[in-house]
Inverse folding.
């Protein structure tokens, strides 16, 4: 059997960012609208600083305004909630993203629930979670949305496919399950208590792995020809004192069996920021009663 097609997240994400930038140019020309994304970062987590810098760069490259709030690690919950209230009221802010994880003394759920759902470009507010579950229009979490876009580049119609999601987190596993239901897949959601996980994954025409366990999903768990979307981002030692990034799927063995597979890096990770930009344009349009452009 031929090796899997490698799903090129880098190119697909660049194309999506290009469509977002074109939509922004049009909105600017016709409505004098330049969407603004506020990103709030609390503390010194190095990975979070890298993510926030990348979000700001891509926001500006797409022609939007990027507003960063970098707060010290000892910021109180009340101070953070006051900033969110200010951003909710600011008509120049269309999207609000609070970079997770927050320091332990701050209740993340309380902060997420304080964001105006119409500006919740991460799609984590319970109102957006509920709307996604009931099939209403919602701002959809970025990584799950990016995962579905990648799968549809291989097979535009996912209707009727047997899909297995490994992982049931609120930020990936659960929302991606809702999106797969929207696409008329038959969905199984597996987790750490699932019996015979390899047997469950072997049923899937489409596997979404979001477990946070390096290279856990092996090639002999994959049904020949299946589409494999690897959400995992794990850093493992390389042996020379350095580290490298790997996914939740054992890429080398899986690519020998799958029909198509996302690499790590170069897969889902790049789609997350592109979908964030897309959500910011969507939020800006809905806030002003404008039709959301195709992106
Ligand atoms: P969480 O730790 O929140 O959830 C992991 C899920 O995997 C849980 O539901 C857990 O089950 C399940 N799980 C853990 N171990 C096993 C196992 N041995 N067998 C079966 N299921 C298991 O992780 P996230 O959803 O936040 O992230 C998952 C991965 O995706 C991580 O590698 C993360 O870095 C990456 N990620 C990538 C993003 C991107 O932009 N590409 C964005 C967000 C995350 P249980 O519920 O039973 O504990």
């Amino acid at each position: 059997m031929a090796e899997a097609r490698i799903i090129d997240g880098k190119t697909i994400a660049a194309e999506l960012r290009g469509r977002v930038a074109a939509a922004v140019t049009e909105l600017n020309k016709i409505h004098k609208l330049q969407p603004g994304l506020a990103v709030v970062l609390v503390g010194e987590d190095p990975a979070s600083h890298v993510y926030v810098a990348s979000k700001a760069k891509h926001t500006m490259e797409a022609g939007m305004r990027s507003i960063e709030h970098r707060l010290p690690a000892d910021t109180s919950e009340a101070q953070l909630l006051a900033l969110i209230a200010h951003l909710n009221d600011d008509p120049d802010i269309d999207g609000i993203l609070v970079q997770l994880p927050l320091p332990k003394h701050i209740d993340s759920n309380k902060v997420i629930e304080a964001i105006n759902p119409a500006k919740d470009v991460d799609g984590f507010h319970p109102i957006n979670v509920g709307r996604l579950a009931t099939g209403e229009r919602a701002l959809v979490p970025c990584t799950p949305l990016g995962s579905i876009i990648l799968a549809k580049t291989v097979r535009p119609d996912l209707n009727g496919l047997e899909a297995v999601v490994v992982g049931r987190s609120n930020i990936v596993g659960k929302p991606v399950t809702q999106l797969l239901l929207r696409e008329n897949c038959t969905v199984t959601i597996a987790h750490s208590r699932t019996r015979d996980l390899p047997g469950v994954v072997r049923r899937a025409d489409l596997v979404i792995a979001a477990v946070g366990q390096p290279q856990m999903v092996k090639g002999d768990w994959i049904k020949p020809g299946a589409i494999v979307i690897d959400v995992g981002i794990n850093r493992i030692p390389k042996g020379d004192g350095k580290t490298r990034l790997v996914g939740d799927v054992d890429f080398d063995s899986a690519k020998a069996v799958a029909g198509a597979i996302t690499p790590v890096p170069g897969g889902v990770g790049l789609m997350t920021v592109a979908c964030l930009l897309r959500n910011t344009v969507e939020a800006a349009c809905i806030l002003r009663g404008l039709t959301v452009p195709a992106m």
The chain has a mean pLDDT of 97.
